[in-house]
Amino acid sequence: MNFIELLPLLFINLQSLYKRNIKIDGLTFPQLLAIFIIPHNGIEMSNLSKKVGVDISTLSRLIKGLEKKKLINRFHSHKDKRVIKIMLSLKSIKIKKNLERQFDNIGSLIQKKIDINDINLTE
Fold first, then answer.
1. What are the CA-CA distances from residue 60 to residues 28, 31, 55 (Å)?
2. Does 116 or 108 have the greater pLDDT score?
3. I need a labelling partner for 123 at 20 to 30 A (CA). Which of 13, 22, 57, 89 fits?
4. Residue 50 falls in which region: left (phi positive, over 0), alpha (psi -120 to 50) or beta
């Protein structure tokens, strides 16, 4: 099996691993991903949509849920009112730090289990 054939399997297994192990009460995995992806200085909805990998309408529902929980704030651009920027609230900045620790812990566990010298990607 070559590297290109392994990528989808790696993606599926990593996604499953993270979904099972990244938990914060009251938040779904997609909501956690959005919080994790949003930079400290904020991001436009269109860019966040691309990074999360969902269309704008799906992202809008996700953002509304986070907004109800007071985890993000939405602002319209001063230059173009159609552009919406998303910023993390103080509460979600704490959640993001927790998420970063959880992601680091999973990364460390993976690193301990895999010996890079044992991996042979050639046929």
1. 15, 11, 9
2. 108
3. 13
4. alpha
Supply 58's token pair. 């799906």
Question: Which residue carries 């953002």 as its tokens?
Answer: 63
> Torsion over CA of 98, 103, 106 and 112, rounded to 10 degrees?
-110
Number of alpha carbons in the 13 Å side-chain half-sphere of residue 91: 10
pTM score, whole prediction: 0.81
Neighbours of 106 (CB within 10 A): 16
**pLDDT score of 123 more than 60:** no
For residues 59 and 52, what is the distance between their CA atoms, to the nearest angstrom? 8
Q: What is the CB neighbour count within 10 angstroms for residue 39?
A: 12
pLDDT band at 117 (very low <50, low <70, confident <90, very high): low
SS3 content of the chain, % helix, strand, coil (to 5): 60, 10, 30
Residue 92, burial from CB neighbour count under 10 angstroms (0-12, 13-18, 19+): buried
Report residue 111 as tokens.
């690193």
